[in-house]
Each structure stands twice: as C-alpha cells, then as structure tokens.
C-alpha cells in the first residue's frame, strides 16, 4: 500500500533555531515529492523534487530528496514565528498524490 | 489568474440534508482533485478528473458521495444524505499535466476550501 510518513508529528522551537522535517515514502511508480505549508487555510506549495541529491532552496527553506532511501527532508534555518504552520509532504505515484499527516511546527518568540 | 475558486466557504447543515460543494479550477488545468481534511485522517484524496472525466474515485467514502465535472471550468461534490461524520474541510485542487511534463511533475494548486459542519 502506498504511504507517506512524516516525522516528527509536532515540534516546538525558539526563534533562530534550525529545524529538520522528515518525510519517507513508499509509492508505486514514484514521480515526485512535494512539500506544502499549511497555515489556517489551504496548503501552499513550497518545493517539488524529482531528482536525488539536488537541493532546492528558497530563502531560509531548503529541501533534498534521496530516491535510494526513499525519503526527503525539509530544513528551515533561522526560524521565525511566521514559520509556524503544518508542513505537509506528498508524493505522486501511479496517478495518485499521497499526503502525509504533516508536521506541526510552532516557533516561539 | 484568480486561482482555484470554491464555494461556499462555510456550510452548516443538518444530518440528512443534501450538500453541494462547488469548484472552479484554474483555467487551462486538465486535472481536478477533491480532497477531504480532518484532524483524525489528515488530507485524503476523494476523486480526481482528467479532462472532465472521472479517473479514480476509489477514495470516495461511500455511495452518499458523488462528484461531477460537466465542463472544464466547473465541478461539484455532492453528499446526500449528509451525516455528522462528514464534517471536514473539503479542498479542490487543480494542476496541469500536459505532455511536456507528464503526470506528477507539476504542483497542485489548492482552493481555499469549504468547511462543512453537519449537525
């Protein structure tokens, strides 16, 4: 059965800390791994990864994919209170997008 | 572009009533998805369409749920009769998976969601 598992389930850090969020997947005919940020509304797109070992960066956020070990990480450096959200990982496979349950990040001032 | 549009944004209804949720995808997108999100089960794919044709409805919970896409710019998700356990946020998302990129190589764009409460 296809599945995406995220860890940790929740995380509380202080502003300025660096966090690493994990996502492992088992998806038939893997095509891509996506990261979304969800605050009190719809998920918003962060990254899409299709190739192993190539880091994608956007400001303080970065992500990388390991297709051999079937996982991805999302790093956030110098965290800010505005980073507080649920971070969702999803994988596309055989005409499906499978979502993990998310990691809830809270950044304290 | 206005993005994916959903209506209503909030719906409160009583058990047994029919509920219809609406979605307008981003113009030019050829795939449309309906998701349900709850605290217990997270984000679940219910059904998706390609070029207005339902491709996979294996995520639809039961016969009380039905979805249609009569044209490229409109889709509905209907629940009849509704039950309290249907209370959730329902998201519509669209994407373009044309020949250049192929399936799964483009991001999904989510609508703002419809928060459904069934009393």
Compute the separation of the termini of chain B in Å: 36 Å
Fraction of residues in H or I helices of chain B: under 10%
Count up the helices of chain A: 0
Structural class of chain A: mainly beta
Multimeric status of the protein: heterodimer
Mean pLDDT of chain A, nearest integer?
Answer: 92
Please report the distance between the alpha carbons of the first and last residues of chain A.
41 Å
Number of helices of chain B: 0
Radius of gyration of chain B (CA) equals 14 Å
Mean pLDDT of chain B: 89
The sequence of SSEs of chain B as H and E is EEEEEEEEEEE
Percent of residues of chain A in helical segments? Answer: under 10%
What general outline of chain B do the C-alpha atoms trace? globular
Estimate what percentage of residues of chain B fall within beta strands.
over 45%
Can you count the beta strands of chain A? 11
Coarse structural class of chain B: mainly beta
Low-confidence stretches of chain A: none
Low-confidence parts of chain B, pLDDT < 50 over ≥5 residues? none
Spell out the helices and strands of chain A N to C. EEEEEEEEEEE
The interface involving the most residues is between: A-B, 21 and 20 residues
Overall shape of chain A: globular
Q: Can you lay out the helices and strands and say which pair or pack?
A:
The complex is a heterodimer of chains A (109) and B (119).
Chain A lengths: L2 E5 L2 E5 L4 E8 L5 E7 L5 E6 L6 E3 L2 E6 L4 E6 L8 E8 L4 E3 L3 E6 L1
Parallel strand pairs in A: 2-11
Antiparallel strand pairs in A: 1-3, 3-8, 4-5, 4-9, 6-7, 7-8, 9-10, 9-11
Chain B lengths: L4 E3 L2 E4 L5 E6 L6 E8 L3 E9 L2 E4 L8 E7 L2 E6 L8 E8 L13 E2 L3 E5 L1
Parallel strand pairs in B: 2-11
Antiparallel strand pairs in B: 1-3, 3-8, 4-5, 4-9, 5-6, 7-8, 9-10, 9-11
